[in-house]
Write a structure and sequence with these properties.
Aminopeptidase; alpha+beta; 7-stranded mixed β-sheet; globular; 7 strands
Length: about 170
C-alpha cells in the first residue's frame, strides 16, 4: 500500500471526492469546494495498492503531531486489513497521531472505536468539539483518540490551538 498525494490534476480526485461524501455526514466534512484546503500543513492522500484506489487519508502535519482529519476505506475494499496498513504508513512518519470519532453509541461506532484501539490508539479524557468545517456549523462533540499514548493536558491544549489556527473554517 502507498499514499498518493492529491493535486487538482490527480486522476484519483473524483474517486476521493465520492468516498469522502459517502463516508462522512455533512456535519463532518468541508463543502465540495473546500474539500482540500490550501494550507501547506494539509496532506490529502489516497490509498493505493498498485494503481487500485483503496481509500482516502487526509491529515494535517503539525510540528508536534499529525491530525488525521478524514480516513475511509472504499466499501468494496473493507475488511481486508487495509485500514491497519494505512495507519501503519502514518505511524512510520514518527509523530504522535490524533483523530476524532463519534462517541460509541451503536454497533458501527463501537466497531470503529475497537478498530482504533486494536491499532494502538487511546481515548483521551478531554472535552473536544470538532473544528467548524463550513459557515454556520454547530459544535459537534467528538471523542479524541491519540497514538501512541493519551495526551497530557498541555498537549491537548496545544492540539486545540493548532486546530483553531489551522484547521477550522475561516471566511475568505
Amino acid at each position: 500500500m502507498e499514499l498518493h498525494f492529491l493535486t487538482p490534476a490527480s486522476p484519483f480526485l473524483e474517486q476521493a471526492r465520492q468516498l469522502y461524501i459517502q463516508a462522512f455526514p455533512l456535519c463532518e466534512r468541508r463543502d465540495g469546494e473546500n474539500m482540500i484546503p490550501e494550507n501547506p500543513l494539509f496532506r490529502p492522500a489516497v490509498l493505493l495498492e498498485g494503481r487500485a484506489f483503496c481509500g482516502i487519508l487526509f491529515y494535517w502535519e503539525g510540528p508536534e503531531l499529525l491530525f488525521l482529519e478524514h480516513f475511509a476505506i472504499a466499501p468494496q475494499k473493507r475488511n481486508a486489513g487495509l485500514g491497519a496498513k494505512a495507519l501503519a504508513l502514518l505511524k512510520e512518519l514518527g509523530k504522535p497521531i490524533v483523530l476524532e470519532i463519534e462517541p460509541p453509541q451503536d454497533a458501527l461506532t463501537c466497531r470503529r472505536k475497537g478498530f482504533y484501539g486494536r491499532s494502538g490508539f487511546r481515548e483521551n479524557p478531554w472535552q473536544h468539539i470538532q473544528p467548524k468545517y463550513r459557515f454556520g456549523d454547530a459544535g459537534l462533540p467528538l471523542a479524541l483518540l491519540s497514538y501512541p499514548k493519551t495526551l497530557t493536558e498541555a498537549e491537548w491544549q496545544r492540539f486545540e490551538a493548532f486546530l483553531e489556527e489551522n484547521v477550522a473554517w475561516r471566511p475568505r
